[in-house]
C-alpha cells in the first residue's frame, strides 16, 4: 500500500509540475506564444481580413438564422463571441467560428424554432466538445469516413437549398421536412409572388457571376514575363473585393431598393420580420420554456434536444478540425486538434451566455480570411467588432431586407456543398464506398441527419468488420514432390477472423488426399491477438494429427515469441525458401500424408521432368533441376544418390545382356536444393554413363 501511495505522489507531483510550466501555458493558451511577436505589419493584415470577414458574416448570419428557423438577430448573436474566444485558445490563424449552414440545419431539426432550446443546445454542445478535448477523444470523428461525410453534406445542401425555394417564390406555410417541403412548394406554385421570384433569381445570378469573376484565374493565358499595368492591378483588386463582399453588396443594394419603395408605400417584396436592435441579454441559458400554455423543464426539456446533444457536437468538431487542417496544410503550419476541441468547446460555452445557437468553422469565411492575408487569430477580433457595430446601429434597417435575397444568398452559399463529383470517382475506384454514400445521402433526406449519419457510419463499420472477419489470403502451390501450399496473409489478423483462419488453413492442405504441407507466410502480418493464436494452434494440431507439416515463415520476432508461448512444436523459418527446403528434406525420407503412400519406397526420391517449385515470387527456388533427360522419370536412391537400374528401358537391358555396351545416355546434372543426411552435405554430382 505504501508503494502505491508513493507512486501516486510521484505522479501527482509530476502532473503539477507539467501543468504549472510555461510550456503547458503556451500550449493551452496559444495567444501567449504569438502575441509578444505581434507587430504593425501583422496588425494591418489582420485588420483587412477581419473587416472582410465581418462584411461576409453579417448577411450570412441573417440568412443562416432563417435556416435555423430562429429570429434573424440570433444569427448575429452567434457571430461575434466565438471570434473573441477562439483568438485566445485557437491554434489556426485562418479558422473563423460562427453560424454555418450544416449546424443551422441541425439546430432547426433539434430546436424546432424555439430560441431557448437553441441556446441550451449551444451550451450542451460546448460542454461535450470541451470534455472530448480534455479526454482527447477527437479520434472518434475518424469513424466518419469520407463517403459518410460527403453523403450527409450533399444531402444537407439539397435540404437547405430546397428549403429556401419558398423564399424565392414568396410562398407561405411550407412544411420543413424534405419530402413535404418539395410537395408543398410544387402544390403552391400558383401562389408565387412574381416580384420575389424576379428579385431572387436576379440576385442569385449576380452572386454566381461575382463568384466566378473572383475565382477566375486571370493569369492563365498571360505571358509571365510581361508585368501588369497599374490599371490591371487596380482592376483585379477591385474584382477581388467585389467578389469577396458580394453577399454584403447584394443585401445592401436590395435593402436600399426595398426601403425606397417601402417609403413610397410600394410593397412588392416579402420582407423579413422586424429585428429588435441592441445587444443580446447576457446571462446563463435557461432550461425551461413555455409550450402549449405549460412550462417545459427538467428531463422533458433535455428530451426535446434528443440526439442533438451528441450528434451536433461531433459534426461541429468534424467541420472545425477538417477545415483547420486543410488551411494549415495549405499555408504551411500545424494545428493542435486537441486544443481545437478545447477552443471550440469554450467558444460555444461562452457564446451561449450571449444568446448564441451552436457554431462551428465556416468553410467560406475561413477561405476568405486566408486569402485576405490574415496573419494571426487576432483577425477574428475585428470581424466580431464589426458584428457588434451592426447590432448596435443598423439592426432597425434589417426589416427592409427582402426574404428572396436571403434565400438567394443561402442557395449560392450551399450550391458547392453538393459533392456530385464524388459519385463517379467512387464508382471507378471502390463501389462499396458508393453504396455507403448513397445510403447516407438517402437516409439523411428521408429520415433525418442523425439517422443518416448513423446508417452511414454503421454500414461503413460493417464493411470494415467483414474485411477483418475474412482477411485477404493467397495460396500458391509449389509444383514439386510433395506439392507444397504457400499461404500468404495480406494484412494483420484479429479475433473476427479466427474461424476463417482455421477453415482456410484446413482447405489449403487437408482438403483432399494426398495431403499437402503448408507454409504460412507472415510477411504482412504485424498483429495477432489471443483468439487468432488459439486458432493457429488448432490448425497446427490438426496437421500434426494427419502427419503433415504446417510451418511458419517470415514471422517477426515479437509475434514468434507470442506463438511459441501457445504452440508447443512451433516450426518457424526466416524465409519461405528455408521452410520449403525443410519440407523437401522430410519428403526425402518419405513422410506419409505428404503425397506418399504406404506402398511407396521411402528410400527413393522420385524426380519427374518438368516439375519444380514456382519461381513467381522469387523466394522459392526449384529443389531439383534436371536437364536432357531421355526417359520419363528416374528413381534416385536417397542413401547413395545413384540412379536405380529399374528405370532402364527393356531394349537397353537386352542390349546389355547380349554383351553390347550400354546405350550412350546424355550427360545429366543433378542439383539438390537440400542436403541428404546420408550424403553428409556433398556437392551435387555429375551423373555420367559410368553410373549406370
From TrEMBL:
Record-annotated membrane-spanning stretches: 47-67, 74-91, 117-140, 152-171, 238-262, 301-324, 378-398, 404-423, 435-463
Region span, Disordered: 599-620, 644-692
Example GO biological process: transmembrane transport
Subcellular location, record wording: Membrane
Protein name in UniProt: Sodium-independent sulfate anion transporter-like isoform X1
SUPFAM superfamilies assigned to the protein according to its UniProt record, in alphabetical order: SpoIIaa-like
Biased composition (Polar residues): 669-692
Domain STAS: 482-566
GO CC entries: membrane
Alphabetic keyword roster: Membrane, Transmembrane, Transmembrane helix
Magnesium as UniProt keyword: no
Entry membrane topology: Multi-pass membrane protein
Main subcellular localisation: membrane
Gene3D superfamilies tied to this protein: STAS domain
Organism listed in the record: Branchiostoma belcheri
UniProt-listed CDD domains: STAS_SulP_like_sulfate_transporter
